[in-house]
Amino acid sequence: MAASPGPDSGVHRPWRGVAAEERQARRRAQLLDACFAIMGTQGVAAVTMRGVCREAKLTERYFYESFRSREELLTAVLETVARQARDVLVEALEQSSSDSPGLVRRAVAAFTEFVTADPRRGRVLFVESLAAPELASRGTELVEEFTATIALALRSPALAGEDADERDVELNARAVFGALAWLYQGWLNQRVPVDRDRFVRHAVSVIEQIAQAGSRPDQA
Prior knowledge:
Elements: H1 20-39, H2 49-56, H3 63-66, H4 70-94, H5 103-117, H6 119-131, H7 136-154, H8 157-160, H9 166-188, H10 196-210
Helix pairs in contact: 1-2, 1-4, 4-5, 4-6, 4-7, 5-6, 5-10, 6-9, 7-9, 9-10
Protein name: HTH tetR-type domain-containing protein
GO molecular function, one term: transcription cis-regulatory region binding
InterPro entries: Homeodomain-like_sf (IPR009057), HTH-type_TetR-like_transc_reg (IPR050109), HTH_TetR (IPR001647), Tet_transcr_reg_TetR-rel_C_sf (IPR036271)
């Protein structure tokens, strides 16, 4: 009598009521979670295919079911955290009126809550993404996506006035991203010993002041 095929047999049919596609999606999620755990505590250098599989409690053969390389897995983790962070920003901006003076504070407070609720998020976003050569290319693309989101806030009449210059907004969005990236990195690494409330107030002040910078001809 032939043995029944197990979940690893490669047969694309339900196993114990779970479809093959769902099993694969679950394994992929386990690998992402495992990589995030290592990357967010020990850093990119500590991430290996075998280590991730051990953390995920999966055999190594499953790694290549979802990822072609270690670099692809690292990039997927960075993209996941960055997407979550961007969603937090967008939601905070959408919940605030564009002419609200509290718009920036709500956005900064929401983002700060996101990166402090799980310190691994902050490390992935502000330490590993900047230091790991494996993430350099995708990291640059994600910076562009973040600056586009920041620009949404900087176009607010409450920040840039009614006649904001689009080139000023673009330049200021990049300046804000650069300033905040280093501020958060230093603060999350506890190199800047200030409490959370003061940090948020300072970040808000930085954004509001940069938003006023301008270089269009009639301002020269």
